[in-house]
Task: structure prediction
Amino acid sequence: MNLRPDLELDLYARYVDQLPDFEVEGYAELDARLAWRLDTHLTLALVGRNLLNPSHLEYGEETLGSAPNEIAREVMLRIEVKY
Result:
């Protein structure tokens, strides 16, 4: 969503159902990005990931049978430079 010509807000909501084989409960999460475009080459963005819960379990990226991973909430400042 463009709040102003130089200010953007992006929201990403998702729901993951339970994974009983991995003993992972279902969860809902929200990611957000607030970006301020300073000029055509420079943008500052405040990004938050997994904002609804302090953490949640996900299964591993390896093969099925890997141990679940605890994924924590993240907040970061991002500088985007285009050249």
User: Anything to note?
Assistant: The chain has no helices and seven strands. The first strand starts at residue 2 and ends at 4. The beta strands are 2-4, 7-16, 27-37, 42-49, 55-58, 69-72, 74-81.
